[in-house]
Amino acid sequence: MTDKALGHVRVLDLTRVLAGPWCAQNLADMGAEVIKIERPGRGDDTRSWGPPYLRDQAGADTGEAAYYLAANRGKQSMTLDIATPEGQAVLRDLVRHCDVVLENYKVGQLKKYGLDYDSLRAVRPDLIYCSVTGFGQYGPYAARAGYDFIVQGMGGFMSITGEADALPGGGPQKAGIAISDLMTGMYAANAVLCALLHRDRTGQGQAIDLALLDVQVAMLANMNTCYLASGEAPVRWGNAHPNIVPYQTFAAADGHIIVAVGNDGQYRRLVELGGRPELADDPRFATNPARVRHRAQLVPLLAEMIRRRSKREWIELLEAGGVPCGPINGLDEVFADPQVQARGMLFEMPHPSAGRVRLVGSPLKMSATPPRYERPPPLLGEHTEGILSGLLGYRQDAIDALRDKGII
């Protein structure tokens, strides 16, 4: 247990889809025991969000969607119908043995089952209860269902993402991943850790209220403060940067590269390596504020310069010259990258139906308590009987009765 940062913590995970499961998976990576509660017969919605599905050693689909695999390693799966009085009684028994409850039901839905924070802290007074919703537990939108795509729009993200309106393909664009879900999951994990530290000092549990919209607004970072400082709403710049030039993609002779010049010295080296040193001495381009003002004149000149060489030539040249740059990789190139491989960002582990499963590693690198990968994403209900008999001490006849009634 000493090499697991959260080896002393048990989490009851009532969440599904992405934000909540992402939080729970991060806690599991750090050693927490996570019990995922799923609906009998159906489970987490994302189990069926395919194709693609995980394949077994013969190449046949296992029925486990790749989407589900992304957010559920390290957990045990227990099926339980919490809409029934019997299921609610079992859940309360589980809460007595758990430090943390995670849930992402609509506001008020668990209260009618007697499974809200106030009800469950009567069962365990030091309970940490984390609720993840679209809009939070209060406010005029609290009753609304929250979806990542909608929140990306409402929270301002899509107003600054996408090609500039005046250019071909311009207009609002969502992120290629469910970014507000994922960031909410990360904020939720951080909040749970803070609550655990507070409980260690005081013995007190607490309720945590995470909202996708709050997170989406908060994560706009410097774009927020640029607006608050100037009173002018930022606009879409596509792959360019509103405050730094050149800091964008360029087309090389055989594909695209990213050039991310952060200061005037790097800019001078860029144009010198490209055979255009006069562009560093031109007063319109000599400093970053000047380059931002004269972006429309400079960028076409740089684009013509960069088109003369291949991606590989530019990357090698600019890296040697100390100019920040990089390729735009597909995922095949990402997982073949020697740096990604050296950092252990891809690993394999045994899987009960596929034999082996490839998963993406945690980015956390810790010397004393590194992430541990001990359980693959579980099959639906894989651990139900073991939890009931082992953790709760239920007799076999009681377990059989629950199964006969469809409660597990």
UniProtKB/TrEMBL annotation:
Pfam families: CoA_transf_3. Gene3D superfamilies: Crotonobetainyl-coa:carnitine coa-transferase, domain 1, formyl-coa transferase, domain 3. The keyword Transmembrane does not apply. Keywords: Transferase. This is CaiB/BaiF CoA-transferase family protein. It comes from Pigmentiphaga soli. The lineage of its organism: Bacteria, Pseudomonadati, Pseudomonadota, Betaproteobacteria, Burkholderiales.
